[in-house]
Amino acid sequence: MTESKKFSRIIYHILVCGFGFVMVYPLLWMVMSSFKETNTIFTTAGQLIPEKFVLDNYITGWKGFGKVGFGTFFKNSFFISVVATIGTVLSSSLVAYGFARTKFPGRRILFVAMLLSMMLPAQVLMIPQYLWYQKLGWVGTYLPLIVPYYFATQGFFVYLIMNFIDGIPRELDEAAKIDGCSFYGTFGRIIFPLIVPALITSSIFSFMWRWDDFLSALLYVNESIKYPVSLALKLFCDPGSSSDYGAMFAMATLSVLPAIVIFICLQRYLVEGISTSGLKG
Amino acid sequence: MKRKLALLLALVLTVMSLAACGSSKTESASDATAPTETQGAAGGNGDSKHLIVAWWGNQTRNERTQAVLDLYSQQNPGITFDGQFVEWNDYWNKLATASAGHSLPDVVQMDYRYLEQYVSNGLLIDLKPYIENGTLDVSGIDESILESGSVDGGIYAISLGVNAPALLYNKTLLDEHGIEIKDNMTMDEFIDKCREIYEKTGYKTNVAYGNGDNFIEYMLRSSGKILFEEGKLGVDSAEELKPFFDIYEIGMKEGWHVDPGIFVERNISVEQEPIVYGSSPETMSWCAFYWSNQLTAVQNAAPEGMEIGITTWPADNPKAANYLRPSQFFSVTVDSKNPEEAVKFLNFFINSVEANNILLGERGVPPVASVAEAITPQLSDQEKLVIDYINNVVTPNSSPINPPAPDSAVEIFDLIDKLEERLCYGEITAAEAAQELFEQGSKIMAGN
Amino acid sequence: MKSKSLSLKQILNEESVAGAIFTLPFIIGFLLFMIVPMLISLYYSFCDYNILSPPVWAGFKNYIKMFTEDSTFLKSIGVTFYFAFVSVPLRLIFALIVAMILFRTTKMTGFYRAAYYLPSIIGGSVAVSILWKRMFAIDGVFNKLLGYIGLNKDFSWLGNKDTAIWVLIVLAVWQFGSSMLIFLASLKQIPTTLYEAAEVDGANKWSQFWKITLPLLTPTIFFNLVMQMINGFLAFTQSYIITQGKPMNSTLFYTVYMYQQSFEFYNTGYGAALAWVMLAIIALITFVLFATKKFWVYDEGV
Fold first, then answer.
1. What residue of B is the nearest CA neighbor of A140?
2. How close, in Å, is residue B32 to chain A by CA atoms?
3. What is the structure's pLDDT at B6?
4. Cis (ω within 30 of 0) for the bond into B404?
5. Which of B135, B279, B373, C219 is deepest in the core (most CB within 10 A)?
6. Which domains does chain B have, with CATH numbers?
């Protein structure tokens, strides 16, 4: 019994590891390339391990552009991503609760509007949005990259959290109501703690998407000292002249790190303490 | 119900006014561009003047250009700069969006391909008044180069580097096999070379694949035609476009043209151009249809021991086909609050030896002869080779550049690439490609 | 005084008032940041507009052109449907399987999850475009692997118009992390007591999965399906950064075509019209999905 259990566990780890390697191989290639000399990246693309490890790409890459180093770009990205993520998660959870647990006139229309707003390609809204933010005097600042997220403008998160609230039995709400809890109290004391996994998931996504967001940074950020990483990464390539792929890979590698760290820190909340009690029973 | 309707109406009106706000602003903005009014505009902005300069490019260019901006603000207290640089595709996207909101940077790097569009939509200021009042000194610039920045009699862009079409080739490879390349090859000579090289070395040829727009114009020039005329194509029949597609048909049939599939696997960049990159001669090209200022980039990307040579693109009538092309224009936009200061900076940008000692011809050979001379000693061997190529090979044997391409050009260029692709994949013949380009192209030009 | 504040409290606790207050952020956000740009783009779709100069009203011209003389439009719709309908189910199945596997907690779980999630983190940067092309190049890793098992290894996956789309589909499936994470989070929501009860009844793991896990996951599967469908139809990055529609428009996503029209050819009005047609298509598909909901999605009995 224990023998076969042990055996199956080993098989499990081998399979998961093996397949995991296939999953991360392309990234491994990128990381390894970042340690190659920049002009040998393509000529030695077939081999994974560099003939000799060099850090030059990290040094030239970190130097950044003009007078602005990559440290600044990272700081900017952090600021934008963290602040926007807080807004997204807070506002989306409020709205999700409203959609999931209350009935009010116009609720359906509002919900449909939310879905519809997700169906228009972002690229087509670029110009109208630009004109609108310009009217508000926000062009050249971080405001267009942050403020909208405090108003639950990403239907994805609202719908995601809503889905989780739907999974919580209504009996809990009713019990809270009998105990004298208002809607606000129920949300704060009962629902909010129970949707933590959904909030964690949302935070991870939101952080990552804000970090990667390139289009709005391109349009609304003007000064190079305010560039986020996503924008700066593209500056290593110039189709008409020389591109520094080594430096680009080096900085791309670094730019993945924050998201990984955040993921590893937060993901344990998705593991620990499998649901406390028979919520759904 | 009525209230809802009123609300909707109000909303629609807001939207319309917002969407149309561009139009009302254009007029006021273009008024402000007249030199007489600039003083008021400049004064209204306080003592320190802030200029935004935008360009595309890589790390080297960003660094050097930023250094020039710093130098200028050092020498001219009260002027501060904000240098905006993004990658080529993003640059045009950002610029177009900013133009919709009338918030273009003061000074923008311009490309010949987009010049006409930006001028005809009234987004750039005419520099002629500034040249006349001496703010912008263009005395050192050759008349034909200056002319290339003009549209309908006004001068809208100043070139920061001169460029010419250049066939870059793998000199080491050809030397090894005793194959010689001479300047001003005819089309037939070129095709014979392609065959010979393929036979002797196994290396194939990339005839400007995916970038045929310049080459087709070059070929038309050779026969005294141009691609674009006002509202129509410059050719009278599909027959005149056919020779261009014939090359691909022959090349694919005889096997010396590189397989089109390899381009999907690569990024559009010098580093992955078949002349320098490929796993076997099968996937490599002995030459690249490029521009003279790309020689350094190609040489840097080439594997060790590969020397890159430079010659003209093939043409039956080299004098008619060849031309000097201003690369990397700079323009001042109508949205600039300080056009006067912007022009002054432009003047410094092109005329200052000190500034160009920092830039070192990274954008091409400086158009002001004395500046070009002054920086020559500091240039690398390849850069000297380029200057020599421009001055001694192209300049004496060329004719003026075609007028800037019209609005719909990009769509036609895309069409050319698509037809080239279908031809190389064997879906259509050269005659069919020419026919379709003629028909579709005429339709696009007519404004459909 | 006291009675007044009490009544205010009561008003606030009216279900409809509370609902409006909770959804207020979205209402404001929608009115402030979304509705106006959306309507402007709708207006553009009825205009001749080239960004650089102001739009001019053109009626239904753009829409008529789309359906009467634009063969690329049809081609890109075909490509997009193929991509969405193949990649989305694959991605979801894959995500669900991996989530089930990684739900087991061992010391390594955190590490494994990170590894499987990594591809999604890197997103759609230039780096991805280069490395993905490298993987599927003629002399790339994928062909080498095929070579090891004795298959033809000189095939250009990206250069062939029948296989290029699959390279993009594989990329989309490779980045399955977000769906996986959502599955993981909702697996956690399933109470362990259910499994304990099932075990007492003698159900094995396999029937536990079919009888407990899957039914309780259907709301999440539905959510993922709807979201991924929308994303699938709006997919842009994969095509834009890797193939740009090549070869021969066989990988030309609808949004990429729209982008080309809007920002490369400066037919921005036409691009806007394309976008609104896409909205109609997606809305229809979403509607159909919602209509099927009651047949297969587990309801809490509300």
1. B103
2. 20
3. 52
4. no
5. C219
6. 34-163+325-395 (3.40.190.10), 165-322+408-445 (3.40.190.10)
